[in-house]
């Protein structure tokens, strides 16, 4: 009886720790083959998850996203881009084409992952979890979810909020000041 109670408590604590991080699951790098375990790769980092599109009025935000990534990466920050064609099919179908566009047009070096669905019934588990935590799914391209070092949601920013907006920068800097989980 005592053993089963201890086991149940241990499993409950493990489940709570696993549920704490929204960065669960594995996704292929854009035009890549080997999936990346987000929770393992970005554990302890502050992460800005962004649904991107190559043919959108907000596409120039790639420049500011890359600048944030470059500026704060040494402190444990990463921008993670997830291309999506959910909104008026404003993304190329071919991942190689997406990759070339992002790299050649905007010099994107931050991690970009496979094309995914971010809204509706077809949303990936990552985006379903983000939407549930934030109380809002992306309504358009370039919605930004900021996750703290513990993998929990810190803030959610709509498409119109530029990545270099002072509120976004302040939230990133505050999250970076938190200690890394052990």
Oligomer: single chain
State mean pLDDT (0 to 100 scale): 90
CATH topology: Glutaredoxin
CATH C-level:
Alpha Beta
Distance between the termini: 32 Å
Number of helices: 6
The general outline is: globular
Q: Major beta sheet, specifics? A: 4 strands, mixed
Query: Into which percentage range does the β-strand content fall?
Result: 5-15%
Number of DSSP-assigned strands? 6
CA radius of gyration:
17 Å
CATH superfamily: Glutaredoxin
CATH architecture group name: 3-Layer(aba) Sandwich
Secondary-structure class: alpha+beta
Overall domain count: 1
Order of helices and strands: HEEHEHEHHEEH
Structure description:
With 182 residues, this protein is of the alpha+beta class. The protein has one domain: Glutaredoxin (3-Layer(aba) Sandwich). The protein is 37% helix and 15% strand. It is built from six helices and six strands; from the N terminus they run αββαβαβααββα. It has helices spanning 2-20, 38-41, 61-72, 95-106, 125-134, 166-176, and strands at residues 26-27, 36-37, 46-52, 77-83, 144-147, 153-157. The strands form two sheets. It has a four-stranded mixed sheet with strand order 4-3-5-6, sandwiched between helices. Strands 1-2 form a two-stranded antiparallel ribbon. Strand 3, helix 3 and strand 4 (77-83) form a beta-alpha-beta unit. The longest helix has 19 residues, at 2-20. Residues 1-19 have low confidence and may be disordered.
